[in-house]
Amino acid sequence: MKRFFTHLYELASFSFRFVKEALVPPYEFGELVSHLEDFGSRSLPLVSAIGLLMGLILALQTKPTLARFGAESFLPAMVAISVVRELGPVITALIVAGRVSSGIGAEIASMRVTEQIDALEVSTVDPYHFLVVPRVIAAVIVLPLLTAYADFLAIIGAFIVMFVTGDMGWQLFITSTLNSLSISDIVPGIAKTFFFGYIIAIVGSYFGFRTEGGTEGVGKAATSSVVFASFIILIADLVLVRVGIILFG
């Protein structure tokens, strides 16, 4: 427990430094574009599969229950609201954390144990500014886009279930889905992903920077990045859900 709270304290200090560093030139646009491609386009296959399966499974699980009450027509609304408000943002963030946060942790940890970070410091390049800032900005930009994409695919997955079983056509499904969603559903779900993206990148960077012990430390940094990022995402979601209820009802 002592080590856990020590990590939280050091991570908070590491995180607050980003606010200052992000506003100070030079701006590493080349690094930013590279990380946007890495975090975004290379995550699309995994996010596509997860998003579609999420909608299929959710529809298959809830359809028999709704059928017992003669409420199958409510399935599009139930899936849309559940996915957009909660399941889509959280599951996408956890999946991306498994890929991106561990990758950041392992990459920066490798640079630490091979003394590349020390070489940057000797050459008067700020390692935090060069390595952390572009990664965090890229994750903050990419995760909301991936979440919106996963939400869309989940709704498509739910439609596939309804279409195959012959219970609802495309036009009725879309109409029911759009009528069920409002700004108070969409905005909180997408807004929280900016925080999740920040958590994913900053946690991976933190554990990468504090790596010790050679190649064994690289593996520990990757594992710790995923575990801590996933845990903090769930805690942050608890807080953000409450904030969303206060602001949007």
How many H/I helices?
Answer: 9
- Our Rg estimate from Cα atoms comes to 21 Å
Counted up, domains total 1
Share of helix among residues? over 70%
Which structural class matches the secondary elements? mainly alpha
Largest beta-sheet details = none
Query: Taking all residues together, what is the mean pLDDT?
Result: 87
Kindly state the number of beta strands.
Answer: 0
Termini separation: 36 Å
* Low-pLDDT stretches: none
Query: Oligomeric state of the chains?
Result: single chain
Strand content: under 5%
**Large-scale geometry:** elongated
Question: Helix and strand succession?
Answer: HHHHHHHHH
Description:
This protein has helices spanning 2-21, 29-39, 44-68, 75-113, 116-122, 127-164, 170-180, 183-209, 215-248. It is an all-alpha fold and 249 residues long. The two termini are 36 Å apart. The model has no long low-confidence stretch (mean pLDDT 87).
List the defining traits of the structure above:
249 residues
Short structural description:
The protein is an all-alpha fold and 249 residues long. It is 85% helix and 0% strand.
